[in-house]
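JOB MANIFEST
job_type = single_chain_structure
chain_count = 1
residues = 405
[input]
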Amino acid sequence: MKLVAKRLDVVEPSPTLAITAKANQLKASGLDVVGFGAGEPDFDTPVHIKEAAKKAMDQGKTKYTPVSGTVSLKDAIIKKFETENGLKYEKNQIIVGTGGKQVLYNFFMATLNPGDEVIIPAPYWVSYADIVRLAEGTPVIVPTDISSGFKITADQLEKAITSKTKVFIFNSPSNPTGAAYTRSDVEALVKVLEPKDIITVSDDIYEKIIYDGLEFVNPAMISDKMKEKTFVINGVSKAYSMTGWRIGYGAGNAEIVKNMDTMQGQSTSNASSISQAAAEAALTGDQTPVAEMLKAFDKRRKLIVGLLREIPGVECRMPEGAFYAFPYITGVYETPGFKRLMAEKNENSLSKLFCDVLLDKYNVAAVPGIAFGDDKAIRLSYALGDKDIEKGVARIKQMVLDLQK
């Protein structure tokens, strides 16, 4: 008897969580490990948000809430969409979940039938394809690269659409590349999508972490017609440094939300009542901490990209958003030392081989690009202090120099 369900045969454990866990184990053993793996801000949750959680506990808000979220949090989400994005939703179009990942998972479980195709531009967030597979859908990966700014073009999108296409995933700013689409970029994609019977999922989790005054735009913001065909997913994890609070939310078609509510009601039920109170304070309270974190991320962005560009064989573009650098290391693959590693190790992925050696011998944790659908790169989160960034990139440079021998 096989103990594990067959659906798990096509799913891999999250590589980002695995690498972060291994780095933390090495740190606990006393090693000085620089961790570029974790996709979470290193700042504490702003004080007024924590105070709101304490107040909620003191007021006895410790019971079940409606599965799809408290009325007051839904009101805050509706106001956020209207004032910041120009999008109007009703309460029956809003759902709150235990993190944006659960909202995304429930969306696909509520919408996909076996064989439905989901277009996913690569590089992509590690969980997109596996969640689609768990929902018995078929991921259709459309590759982009550094020359296109890691952005899918309208022509690529048009060619990927078939009679089986059900969903297109749009993520801007992007994890893992930090690429952000301009309004004209989004308008070009919408021109392809509007006439089609396709749902667009817009993953906006890095919405507020965007640089150089670039305007944030998602497909729903382009036209009323496109809004009706777009499901927007967001949350408080990244912008407010609340990853552990586990609050995400979604907005879109009321029938989809109703079925997501059913899915959630049979799994986790409501998200934490205390976390919902904290999320409400995040959305409605002082936004100064967000601006302060963005300023720090911007400084780190320029620091890490500048240092990476000094390493032989490394090519790195300046990300427009999020807190990730996604340097190409194909030049390193051509070094004598790396070719020897390839001959010695039984590893099909070049980026994984690079990251394994980087962690085991140089005490630096990075995520291989293969986890995001691009084996030419590695992902480095710069959600850590300047000194650690400098130390970590210096070790990467030393590894590359050693491989040239």
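[summary]
The first helix runs from residue 15 to 28.
The chain has a mean pLDDT of 96.
exit_status = 0
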